[in-house]
Amino acid sequence: MSYDATFRVWRGDAAGGDLQTFTVEVNEGEVVLDVIHRLQATQVGDLAVRWNCKAGKCGSCSAEINGRPRLMCMTRMSTFGEDETVTVTPMRTFPVVRDLVTDVSYNYEKAAQIPAFTPRPREADGSHRMQQVDVERSQEFRKCIECFLCQDTCHVIRDHEENKAVFAGPRFLIRLAELDMHPLDVVDRKHEAQDEFGLGYCNITKCCSEVCPEGIHLTDNGIIPLKERVVDRRYDPLTWLGSKIRRRRPD
Amino acid sequence: MELERHEYDVIVVGAGGAGLRAAIAAHESGARTAVVCKSLLGKAHTVMAEGGIAAAMANAYPEDNWRVHFRDTMRGGKMLNHWRMAQLHAQEAPDRVRELEDWGALFDRTPDGLISQRDFGGHRYARLAHVGDRTGLELIRTLQQRTVALGIDVYMECTVTRLLTGENGVTGAFGYWRESGRFVAWSAPSVVLATGGIGKSYKVTSNSWEYTGDGHSLALQAGATLVNMEFVQFHPTGMVWPPSVRGILVTESVRGDGGILKNSAGNRFMFDYIPDFFRKETAETEAEADRWYDDKKNNRRPPELLPRDEVARAINSEVKAGRGTPHGGVYLDIASRRSAEYIRKRLPSMYHQFKELAEVDITAEAMEVGPTCHYVMGGVEVDPDTEAARVPGLFAAGEVAGGMHGSNRLGGNSLSDLLVFGRRAGLAAAEHARSRPGPAPLPDDDLADAARAALAPFEREGGENPYAVQHDLQQTMHDLVGIIRTAPEMEQALERIAALRERVGNLSVEGHRQYNPGWHLALDLPHMLLVSECIARAALERQESRGGHTRDDFPATNDEWSRTNLICSRASDGTVALSRQPLPTMPAELAEVFEEVPA
Ligand code: SF4
Ligand code: SF4
Ligand code: FES
Question: Looking at the domain that runs over A105-242, which CATH code has it been given?
Fold first, then answer.
């Protein structure tokens, strides 16, 4: 059941690096992260890689496998032929720290800039009442495991370092959409979405939705509706007011 | 020596649910607070929690209240829990859940718009607030976003290797940045340990690489005590196939939502394993068990929902008796019992996990599952109200603290534990810092010594490979201090641990200090070894079976032991010392709970 695979893994740091070739054992049922771990344990003890859950739940093990942004722990070796060379490189959109580990602080900075969730008051009995259908829209975006693969993919910032200052990336556009659709939140962030987080830079190529390991429909369910509401808000304040009021449950 | 220095009132070590909740509480009560964590913010092991947060909110069953939750928790822990912790936990959990909503959490709803609550093993009523089967992610993201909104400092990918102490207790902590390998020292009068558990000492575990017992070991070395270390929870349902995913958790919600366990002969074997202790509240026939899902008033619970220790032992016995699946587990079947649509809706991440990792469609076929090391009930001995350890200025909350869960934890009680005691620890840590005149100086010698110890693996040439040593430790604990234990095996384990200690003293690593996983593991290994020794010693000493501690040579519970805790401390020669301590006595008005609520 085992075979020897050829792996090319990028090794290096901020100063530079290159692809190194390894021959490494692969067993039945393994994923790319298992093979990287075997390299660590047997050939290159200092090979740098992030991971935590090994079950696609924490979003730590993001990398590019044969050029595709993917989670290493959810990429089964059986998707490759036994004689196929598997190439693993760090996410290109973020600066390399070492080997497969990148500096993702851009994402944490954007997250911190988003105006915080602010709830309406609780009801008289201390509860918040919301209907399942109303929470489900935001829940879709709260499935996000912050793997940042969508950020890595988005052409607005991939190879365009200069756009990072003005564009928050798909992950944080859906965070804005999530808050906008949140039944309890009372803050309007549409203005910031456009002017500070760069909603207008997105031209709806949908590449972000394609790579999302959680299957979140970033563009269809998040970014496009947000764009529509921003337009409403800008040109027709009454429409916006109406939609905001309709979203409240009738008491 | 090159060293980055910082000063705070409260340092929280760990950024899972307990750590973040502690940091929020400390910050909100005015303390200058920082969180130090080994991974990126938002990646902590709490994200792996699937089922939900246990809280007697009575949204699903008006009969539910804190006294019933308290009773369930104590019975689940076979009465070894610290009664005061179990009481505070049951009383405060509902408020801790509600406040998450004020910070943005979106739980699944009941038809009238309240937080929906689901069934779980050992809980009399449906009580777990949940979001599909990704409740832990919701909890961590909510606390993360709150932490960021409050502007609390977070030192990400930074490992604490030592607690610094002076005559009056804690003075700070010493650690290194994983990215650069550079050293950091924090001066602080209060440190909250929220480092989680120890599962990485075992071969088959649901725990991530972070679970190396750092907090347990740091506390012990600083002079604090550990309680109940012999109690390790093996979750009954981990994946068993393929080998590379062995141990990954399969949530208890599968059983709560209707899944049943079957052996290779197709028998629903849990009916053969109902212990007397739970007989009155467990269904006797399959028909009654099946009726329970819709009519809880007139039927008793299916035996699949017995506490985890009971189910794990039963699976272990079935496999040993030759009635296991081809890959050495048993079948967990929900496919034949619920519609595909229902399964995908209630258990989306389980569906995804099996589809992606095992090529199994859980809406069409049964899963293969077996026990996996999941949780340590034992931990730092703390004061129930303040989570203060025996060293002044040291606090512990969440999995790293002991006492709350007794000999076995109920599912769902972990996330509520993190919130209730995380908050209490943060408040008490801030209060303690206020009582101190100011930062104590950190002696240069102590800092230099900590740095020397951390760099030692680079100095040695041709020593032991840390990955090989870790592997041997995991094999030892798996084989000799696992689910079923005997004295000769544990004695052998202690001998092997002694031999491993020699090898850990002789580790060497290649490369340099920048993001070097081999070096990081070399620094985690002494912690893993120390907690493994505590577990093995305590397990050898406790000559009875109870909860997460099963002795083949002492299969029954024992009255004397029902009143006794085992305490680990550090002897003057650096070894682990063990002592017996009477259980705290429950006040009469709480003892009544066990009579007033029908079993
Ligand atoms: S749809 Fe927008 S956000 Fe997504 S990848 Fe394309 S440009 Fe980027
Ligand atoms: S939206 Fe999807 S791809 Fe983007 S960070 Fe979240 S989980 Fe990853
Ligand atoms: S390790 Fe958690 S997503 Fe891969």
Answer: 1.10.1060.10
